[in-house]
What we know:
Layout: H1 3-16, E1 33-38, H2 43-50, E2 58-63, H3 74-84, E3 90-96, H4 106-115, H5 120-128, H6 133-136, H7 143-155, E4 165-171, E5 178-182
Parallel strand pairs: 1-2, 1-3, 3-4
Antiparallel strand pairs: 4-5
Amino acid sequence: MAILNEILEYNEQFVENKEYKKYQTTKFPEKRLVIISCMDTRLTELLPQAMNLKNGDVKIIKTAGAIIAHPFGSVMRSILVAIYALKASEVCVIGHHDCGMSALDPDDFLGKMKDQGIKEETLNTLKYSGMDFNQWLRGFDKVEDAVKSSVSMVKNHPLLPETVSVHGLVIDPETGKLDVVVDGYTNVPKEQC
């Protein structure tokens, strides 16, 4: 059975049995926190459990490596929406050990694209148009440095209120142990994050 058909078949029973009722909440995060986390499958249930979070407590934004790559991209826009429209007052960037983005090799990645049918001429057109694949597909060597970089991107954003605390953590995807990389409660000036 195709995955979509399997999902829809299950969903029909889910709705019919009113299983959704136990997940009902408002759109506002109860703990007033927005989390930027990696899309790693090991964190789907582990991260909320390790942080004692339930449905409705936080806004979670998933991205490869928990990386905020551009100050005016969709991740940063989502953070600002969570703050200004959905009453979040803190931000937490959470990377993890053994991340697929660690030491990601742009050349290898482009090779995989070509193996899947992306034409060299398409890649050349994008390069000619200004696309820097080495920058766009760059991973990181140390997860702690990647977390610090993303925290700095958020904390130094010109549209972020001074009152918003921005934290950085790293989670162990095997045990759920959290280590603090940046404590957003310390009075660190924006530029020094």
